[in-house]
Structure formats: C-alpha cells, structure tokens
Write the structure tokens for this entry.
Amino acid sequence: EFAFDCSSEATIDIDIDGSVSNFAFGDVMFVLDRSYGMRSEDTVDDETKEIFDFVLEDIEYAVDYLTGNFAIGTFSAGLVSFNEEPSMLFDINMTTNVSYFKTQLNSNVPPAAGCRSIGDGLCSAETIFAIDNCVIPPGTQSTRDFIILTTTGKEDVPPWVEHHDSDNVSMLPQLADTTTVFAVGIGPEDEVFEEQLEDISNAGSSRGKYYRIDSVSELRDTYDEIILNEIGNMLPDHVLGVTITPAPEISLLYGPEGCSGGWVKGEPLVCSFENGSFYGRKFKVGFQVDKTTFAPGDYTSVISKVDLTLDTFDACGGVDSTSDIDFSAQNISIS
C-alpha cells in the first residue's frame, strides 16, 4: 500500500528471481577420433604433445565455454570417443556436473590407438540422443541436438559413414533431422577426407558446417565459433514475461527496458526479458496516484498482482511435463 501525501508519484522496487530445472535447452555430443592417427604430435605455445591430448584439453575448454555463454535452462553434453568401436559414453547435466565431465575426460578416456570408424562414433551419439528423456521426435523441424565431430583422417573400417559395398549400410541417413553435425578435420588437405566431412555436416538437419584446420592450435577458436555463432544462433531464446497489474486508481508510468503499457489507470505494465537477463533482476517501476481521488494520509493499494510466464518455445515438446519452473516476484517495496 501507498500512504498518499503531497507527492503524487513514487516508485516500486521489484526483485525477479527463479530457476528452471529438468529442462534440456540443448544437447551437445562431442564425437572424438581416438584412432592411432590422433597420436601424431603437434606444437601449441611451445608445448609439443600428441594431438589427442590437445583435443581433450580443448573439449574441456569448450564445456566451460558452453556453460559460460548460455545461462538459460540446462545444457546437456556428452562425449563419444571412437577407433574401431565407440567407448566412454556419458551424458551429463552441464549446470551441475561440469566437474564430473572434466574428471571423466581427464581420467577415463582410453589412449589413442587402432583404426577409425567415424560411422560408429556418429551412430553412438545419435543413439544417446534417441534415448534422452527430452528428445523432440524427428520431423518437428527442430535442431536441438548437436554433434561436434573432431578427427584427423577419413574412415578405414566399418560401420561406414557412406556406402562402401552392399554389405554395409550408410550411417548418414540414420542421423535424425533434429541433429546438426559440425565436422572438424585436423591436418593437411585431402580431397576424399574433406568431401566425407562435408557430407557428414550436410546430413541430419543439413544445417551443419565443415571446418578444416591445419593445426590443433586452431581448434579452440573453432570450438568458440561453433558454440557461440552456430549453435547459439540455432537455439531459441527463452523469454520471461512479467505483467504488473496496478490497482484501479494507479497509473504505472515507466519500467525498465523491455516494458510497455501502464499509462492508463489500471492498465497493466507488460515486460519481456530474453535469455539470462531476468535472473536475480532488480528494477524500478514508477507509478502515479490521481490527486483528486485521495486526501493526504489516505492509503491505497498500488499493485493488484504480478504475473510471471516463461516462454520456452516448446523446446522439450511440452514444458509442463518435463520442467520444473519456479519464478517469483520478491521483496516488493515502495519508496
């Protein structure tokens, strides 16, 4: 309530806070070549070691980059390493288990050895997407699942990415149209190798991209580009709506950027905040009292209610059944 005196205007301080849990905003699977070819040495910042070791470090960096640039919901990520067959399959909730991801990455990935079956790595990643509890069924034209493939050479054992003979089925048609693949090839130019990675990046949703880099020293910047500029542009923003309804005799004059309306007595002020800007958000709303209605010392209610809504763009195929959304307007005070 507001105690009316000689002034007809005042402000309301409103804190908006909350969380979204059990909500997969995006699934990223790192698919990593673990064949003998990854044991070739390279030098980065005067340090020389196997390419495979550098890539593991850069994936750890990429996990931090994911969590640092996407504040909304949760980000699921996992890793498949492959040579003749895939190994180390794990899928995590990025917002709570980043340290677990790093521990697994540093202690449980087998050393690089053997031949290379890119098809096996992609098939395993797609299988994880298929059993994830928040996968959008194929055909919805969504691209919420992402594979980042990193390899130093073309496949040399089945299952094949593409047809080699009548006994082997191509892996590429098995990639769902909800899956986008970014393929990173490390090493010198090779026409067959590059064509294969381009075919991989054009499969699934067909919105992927192929990157060829000469040295592993370029990999970290490439991961930055994929995560921020490619994946970031494909994921829809989450929008928090805040509707502040004043008492009948109150006019809400202004709010923070993203708010409109409220100029007419009793008319709601409607605000819209995208991405992470509403977490722990504090803002002021100015309001005006009609002087002719109240005498000094009279009290009147200022706000009838504050409504909060979270638009998830149905990224999980029904947010009510898959998410726990808890937002509230807190610590509302008048000055």
